[in-house]
Every structure is written in structure tokens, then in C-alpha cells.
Amino acid sequence: MCIILFFFLLVTALAKDLHIETIGPFYIGSLSDLVITTTLINRGSTPLVLLRTPGSILFPNVTNNFDIVHEYGGSPRFLGAQMKYSLDILAANNGSFLTLPPNTSLNITHDLSNLYDFSSTGKGIYHVHPATTLYEVSSAGGIPKPFPAGSFSSHSINLIEDVFNFKEARLENKLERRDTVPGDIITPRFKSCSTEYQDATNDAIPIAKKYVADAVSYLAALDDSTPRFTTWFGDFTTHKYNFIQRNYEMLNATDAYQSWTYDCGCEEGNAGIIAYVYGPEYGTIHLCPGFMAVGPVGTDSRAGSLIHESTHWAKTVNTLDYVYGQEGCKSLAEDDWRKAVRNADTYEYFAENVPELL
After folding, report:
1. pLDDT at position 184, please?
2. Architecture of domain 189-352
3. Catalytic residues
4. What kind and span of H or E run contains 291?
């Protein structure tokens, strides 16, 4: 009995336990006051080696790291960067790790003043919930595994004035109108892109268009459940089918992909970031070093990454990045199909169809 009790206490002591605290101002009269601090507390007795992934609280001031919900429902529109990244590449980059020793804490400041537009939801009380799943890197190596916090606290803010985030207006106003006439040969525009990036993008565009066209053809012939449909979007329903079909048809527009601008400046990325877009900045995809590190075709390919990013705009599908990776997307289809039909990686994997599903 004593041996069993000792073993139980030993296992408990070694258990990994991460807590996330969320604090900030309560009254917000201006978006410049919208600064939130998260505190990661390692309550366990072993170090936590965590990966700085987009969408997590370890990647502040750029991506959507919080679920912000008005007391009467509804959320402000996210205006920041929506990224496609590679876990493998991030895991191979030492600068992407953060080590949190036992019984220590880390404060991270999040300036949200330019990341959300509250004009549609208005003033009132909002509940700010942090993203609670991180990726842990094992000492034995291998692919990082999702590591949910054992506990967390949320924070409430009272937006006492109606505010509008002018970042959206700036992004939309800076886009150049591109007029064409019938018979014009439409080619992509490049900004700060080397010849290597331009060649890789020009090769990826027709593949992306074929992936999307094949998805449209597949859906047009579909009238019931199939392994391919249920794997990525859950059980077949007519309402869901019509919604997904419409979205792929939007991506299948005549000048999609080849008429857009590709910016290789990658101001927001690092070695593991493949590409990103800003929601209000329709028609511009930012390419990062990870774009050249992934394959031209197949799962998480360059062509697939263009599809992923193209779904984020409100003019196409208006997706978010609820989960990344095939396993995460499969679980999402089973657990929450409403999020699956709004998840960018899901649309990419359905279109890439690797491994092939009928």
C-alpha cells in the first residue's frame, strides 16, 4: 500500500501543469487602451518546452490569440495576420522554442489595439478568452504535440464608446484597382520577390487552380455522404453541402490566384511561416521563407497553402484558423462541424486530397 501511495505521489508531482492568467483594464474608452497581459505559470515539477506558434499566446500582437465575445453574442472582426505555418520547420528552428522551468511564470503583453474592429458589435461588455492550446516539444524529438493548459482565467472589458478600427480602411484603401479588358493576359503581381519566389509561385498557381477545380467537379457530382466529405466536413447534410460547394465555386473564379499580388517581404513571419493574409486586404498573399521549404504538391504544399490563404478573405470563404494539421482537422469535423466549415486548413486538405479519399 505504501509503495502504491508513493508511486501515486511521485506521478502527481511530476505531472505537467500549465495555468494561464489573463488580466487587463476593465473600462476601455479608446482602442489604444486595449492591452491584455497573459501570464503562463508552470505549476508542475518538470520544464515545459513550448513552441511559438501563430495563433497561440506565445505569438503576440500579430495573430488571433483570443476569443473575444460580446455579452449578447457576436465577436469583433479580426484584422490581423492569418497564417499558414509548418510545425516541422518551426520545430527545427531553435529560435521558435520557449522553456518554462518548474514553478516559474512568464508575462506576455498583447497589444490588441490594431487587431480587432468593434464597429459591428458596438460598445458593451466583452469576455476575452485566451487561446489555451500550445505545442510542446518532447526531449526525445519528433513532431510537437498539442498541449492544452490545465486551467486558465478569462478577462472582461467594458467598451464604453463606439469605436472603429481604421486599420481596415487603411488596408482596403491602399489596394490598387486592376482594370482588365477581354482578351488581356492576366498575370500575378510580385512585390519584393526574388526570381526563385516568382518561379515557385507561378508554378503553384495552376496547381492550386486545378485542385480547386477538381474539388468543384467532385462536389457537383456528389449527392450523399462519402469518406472524403465526412473526413473533412463531418456528416453530410444538404445545407452544409450547399455552403461548401458555394465556397469552392468562389475560389474557382476565372481570375483567382493569377490576378492577385504576392508580397515576399514577410514582415510578420519567421522560418516556419509559409504565408499569411490580412482579412481586409483582399487579393494580396504574403509569402514567407516556409513557402520555399515545402513541396510544390501534396499535403501542406505551396499550391495548397495558396488555397488555405485565399479562403480567409470575406469575399471568398471568410475562414479562421481554428486548428492546423490533418489530425486536428479530422477531429474538428467530428467534434464541431460548424467550425470545420470555417477552418482554412480543412478547405486546403479537401482540395489537396492526399492521401486520396473517394
Report:
1. 55
2. 3-Layer(aba) Sandwich (3.40)
3. 309
4. helix 289-293
